Recover the amino acids of this structure.
């Protein structure tokens, strides 16, 4: 558990870290967030995470509570005070506390919370073990590209996965096409060795791991196609996996009880795991794969 958290201008012991009962994040899920991995003391893909944060804020018309430079300082300070070299940092910005009223407050005072936690990153060899996923209808709102804290449908779907003994739930749109996972992006490798993930639209979050991995796939000369794929196509795929800042690349060997490929982690998934692990270890100024790809 982290010891020190940042809440609205103060570094406080984590057990005392709290926001006002009328914070609009608490009452209306009126806020956005980011999760950034920390590896060997540096933030993985900090820049694109902060770019996405700005876009989420803009989409919801929430004013940034601090400048980017101040935010970067606060993140580092939270990591320093908690002595975290490997783990993740969580930042949340809400429209702040105001007397309860659905419409925006006239003079909003946006709120910022930063927490961090230790995590031992699994070596890529861990990827030799695949996990299972279940599929469920995607019942989220129509703007899933915004990284909003409004996550109740994701929470309910993830719990269904846990109850079913699965690691993740892949969500399906009305046409039976996979949108993404509850907290990750979904990928398959077809029989023709094409790497497929859904194109960026308002139905999925533009994952930063997804973005980076796209760049790494290009470097590895793996053919990447961004298009919708159905649950049926996923079940017939040679390989499957999902990605996020905390799961990294998680091989999938079972979808709804159907074995994927030969039930082992596939070659392309393995190569991407190794490449992503090396990428995470690189100094930030070296780590630029995929950052030019549009989000
Ligand atoms: N979730 N899709 C959804 C719905 C997500 O919540 C996430 C990340 C991703 C992957 O995004 P990224 O690669 O930038 O982490 C895709 C974070 C980790 C979370 O909610 O904890």
């Amino acid at each position: 558990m982290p010891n020190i958290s940042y809440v609205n201008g103060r570094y406080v012991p984590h057990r005392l870290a709290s926001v006002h009962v009328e914070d609009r994040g608490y009452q209306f899920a009126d806020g956005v967030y980011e999760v950034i991995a920390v590896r060997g003391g540096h933030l993985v893909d900090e820049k694109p995470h902060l770019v996405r944060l700005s876009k989420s804020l803009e989409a919801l018309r929430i004013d940034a509570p601090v400048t980017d430079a101040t935010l970067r300082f606060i993140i580092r300070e939270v990591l320093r005070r908690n002595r975290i070299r490997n783990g993740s940092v969580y930042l949340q910005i809400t429209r702040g506390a105001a007397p309860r009223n659905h419409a925006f407050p006239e003079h909003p005072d946006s709120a910022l919370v930063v927490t961090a936690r230790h995590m031992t990153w699994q070596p890529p060899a861990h990827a030799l073990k695949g996990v299972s996923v279940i599929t469920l209808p995607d019942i989220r709102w129509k703007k899933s590209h915004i990284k909003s804290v409004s996550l109740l449908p994701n929470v309910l779907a993830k719990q269904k996965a846990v109850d079913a003994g699965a690691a993740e739930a892949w969500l399906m749109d009305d046409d039976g096409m996979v949108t993404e996972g509850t907290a990750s992006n979904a990928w398959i490798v077809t029989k023709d060795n094409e790497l497929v993930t859904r194109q960026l639209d308002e139905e999925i979050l533009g994952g930063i791991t997804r973005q980076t991995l796209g760049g790494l796939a290009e470097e590895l000369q793996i053919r990447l196609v961004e298009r919708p794929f159905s649950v049926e196509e996923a079940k017939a795929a040679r390989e499957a996996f999902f990605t996020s800042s905390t799961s990294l690349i998680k091989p999938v060997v079972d979808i709804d009880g159907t074995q994927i490929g030969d039930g082992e982690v596939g070659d392309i998934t393995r190569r991407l795991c190794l490449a992503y692990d090396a990428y995470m270890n690189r100094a930030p100024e070296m780590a630029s794969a995929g950052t030019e790809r549009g989000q």
Q: What stands out?
A: Residues 4-118 form a domain with the D-amino Acid Aminotransferase; Chain A, domain 1 fold (CATH 3.30.470.10). The pocket of N-(5'-phosphopyridoxyl)-D-alanine is lined by residues 35, 180, 183-185, 205, 207-210, 243-246 (CB under 6 Å).
